[in-house]
Write a sequence for this structure.
C-alpha cells in the first residue's frame, strides 16, 4: 500500500515536471540574428517590440539608456520625449535584426531581450541614438561588446552638446547615475 502511494506521488511529480518543461520550451522564441523582424511598437527611447513567429517580444537596446518617459513613479526626464520620438522615427514601420552579446544575459530582470538593433538599411540604431545625443552609454553589470566604442561616442556627443547634452546640462550627468 505504501509503495503504491509513493509510486503514485512520483508519477504525479514526473508528470507535472514534464508538463512544465513542455510549456516552458514552447514559450521560448528562436531568434535568428540574420533575419529582419518587423517593429510593431516603440515603448520609449530604448525599448521597442518586434514580431517573431507570430509572437510580440520586447527588446531593450543594449549599451544605451535614454531619459525615462513611461515610468509611472516619476515625471518624464529631460529630453525623454525627444528621445522617444527619435526612436519612433528611426524604427517606425521598419524591420530590424537583433544581435545579442555572447558574454551577457539574453534577457533583463523585466524579461526584455537585450540586443543591438540593426535597421533594414544597415543603420546601427543603438549607436545612432548615442551619436545624436538621444541616449547615454549604459553599463549594467558586466561589460558588453561595444562598451569602449559607445563610451567614446558619448564623449563626442557631450563635447558637441548634441541632444540631451546641450538641452539638459547638469541634469544629463545626474541622470546618468540614477538608473538601475
Amino acid at each position: 500500500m505504501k509503495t503504491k502511494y509513493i509510486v503514485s506521488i512520483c508519477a504525479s511529480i514526473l508528470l507535472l515536471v514534464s508538463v512544465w518543461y513542455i510549456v516552458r520550451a514552447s514559450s521560448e522564441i528562436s531568434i535568428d540574428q540574420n533575419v529582419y523582424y518587423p517593429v510593431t511598437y516603440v515603448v520609449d527611447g530604448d525599448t521597442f517590440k518586434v514580431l517573431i513567429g507570430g509572437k510580440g517580444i520586447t527588446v531593450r537596446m543594449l549599451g544605451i539608456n535614454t531619459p525615462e518617459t513611461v515610468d509611472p513613479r516619476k515625471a518624464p526626464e529631460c529630453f525623454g520625449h525627444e528621445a522617444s520620438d527619435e526612436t519612433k522615427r528611426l524604427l517606425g514601420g521598419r524591420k530590424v535584426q537583433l544581435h545579442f552579446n555572447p558574454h551577457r544575459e539574453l534577457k533583463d530582470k523585466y524579461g526584455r531581450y537585450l540586443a543591438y538593433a540593426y535597421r533594414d538599411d544597415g543603420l546601427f540604431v543603438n549607436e545612432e541614438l548615442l551619436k545624436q545625443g538621444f541616449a547615454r552609454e549604459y553599463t549594467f553589470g558586466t561589460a558588453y561588446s561595444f562598451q569602449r566604442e559607445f563610451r567614446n561616442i558619448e564623449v563626442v556627443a557631450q563635447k558637441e552638446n548634441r541632444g540631451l547634452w546641450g538641452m539638459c546640462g547638469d541634469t544629463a550627468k545626474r541622470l546618468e547615475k540614477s538608473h538601475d
About this structure: The chain has two domains: 1-29, 37-176. The beta strands are 37-44, 47-52, 55-61, 64-65, 95-99, 113-119, 136-137. The first strand starts at residue 37 and ends at 44. Residues 19-26 have pLDDT under 50 and may be disordered.
